[in-house]
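Lecture 7 notes: from sequence to structure.

We start with a single chain of 245 residues. Read the sequence below before looking at the structure.
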Amino acid sequence: MNTAENRLHLLYELNRRLTTLNDPAEFQIYITRRTREIFNAEGGSLLLLDPSRNEFYFPIASQSAGSHVTPAQLAEIRFPADRGVAGWVLANDQAVWVPDVSKDPRFYSDVDKQTETRTHSILAAPLRTSSGNIGVIELVNPTLANFSKDDLEFFEALASDVAVSYEKAALLERLRGEVGALRQLCRGLGTILLGGGVVITLGAIFFRMARAAPLAELPMAPGVWIGIAAAVIGVALMRAAKSSA
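Now the structure, written as tokens:
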């Protein structure tokens, strides 16, 4: 499909682009589209593993203009992680090229039935990370003339790069979510402390005024400095939440 020089150029291009994608959805859209274009495939998708249910699912998929299946259709499909060519790739940690699925007993036809499509060939590789395989990248009906072992190794190397980049994007997304939750917590707690501090301070002032206590003693009243301290802490938390936005 490509010369060694072209393959290296493509890996460099993809790696450079992947390092700038920190949103998992944007990442998935780009990589499925780009790999489909590279191998001139009818469809491309990431089949991610759901360990809790031991199932594959399609978060994002890219289809050619002539394809009848939509990403929304694939997003609703799940199937056991030990089924199909993808299941074999995941279990054996090995890329595979299946030029004719009708002659391969590993092929799982239920996805075709649910999407009313026809798979003729499959190119698949494991998505390897330091913590284990997180799924499989799969191309459906790629146009591959004189497909070689080098081409399969190139696809496998590409899949490994995709897995590492996806894991990084997913981690950043989780961290953004945790930071957002912490920001909301600080904002809410700050608002409570500020409001409570004002109420406590005013209450202490009115209490001492009702008792005709000398105003000069107000700073020494426990209720006053407790209220002021709460208000100050509340303001600090709200400013911290705002500055981290």
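The longest strand covers residues 132-140. Keep this in mind for problem set 3.
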